[in-house]
Amino acid sequence: MSNSSQISEIQDILTEVDGLLRERLAAAGLNIGRVLLAIAPDGAGVVRSNIGPAELGDMAELLAEIADGAAVQRPDDEALN
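RE: above sequence
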């Protein structure tokens, strides 16, 4: 599978997941910000979100803090989940 077809497939999957997430959140009466992020094999990020650039920037800072903490606690790149 070529890189562009991988990205396209990832985009399709995230779009499908985002649709399901929107439906489930709406059914639960929840109107919240959401971000779905997948990292392609080449390192490209694929994002589906309902928040703006400022909120994404805030989230990036928070993720950097989480990563820094995880690096201390999980030195062997162990997944956080």
